[in-house]
Design goal:
With 81 residues, the protein is α+β, with helices and mostly antiparallel strands. It has a single domain, classed as Ribosomal Protein L25, Chain P, CATH 2.40.240. The protein has a four-stranded mixed sheet. It has a four-stranded antiparallel sheet with strand order 2-3-7-6.
């Protein structure tokens, strides 16, 4: 199994798991630096969800949440672990 890379400021909003643009870039960069690969992960409601790095960097959408620009990835691409 790939090492999880926890999103440090992740939230759930309107069907998306979202994080700051800087956090998205940090995790994407880490994924390309680690030879074994990583799986971005987020904890929500006591459950951890993971996504493949390729889906994380493919299916993102820039969104405005509470006046902040964030990056969201639809919940449907995340798997409960």
């Amino acid at each position: 199994m790939l090492a999880p890379a926890e999103l440090l400021d992740g939230i759930y909003h309107n069907g998306y798991f979202a994080c700051s643009v800087d956090e998205f870039k940090r995790v994407a960069k880490k994924g390309h630096e680690v030879s074994t690969g990583i799986s971005p992960a987020i904890e929500f409601g006591g459950t951890t969800y993971v996504i493949s790095l390729s889906k994380f960097i493919t299916f993102w959408k820039e969104m405005e949440i509470d006046g902040k620009t964030m990056v969201g990835v639809p919940r449907i691409y995340w798997k409960e672990v």
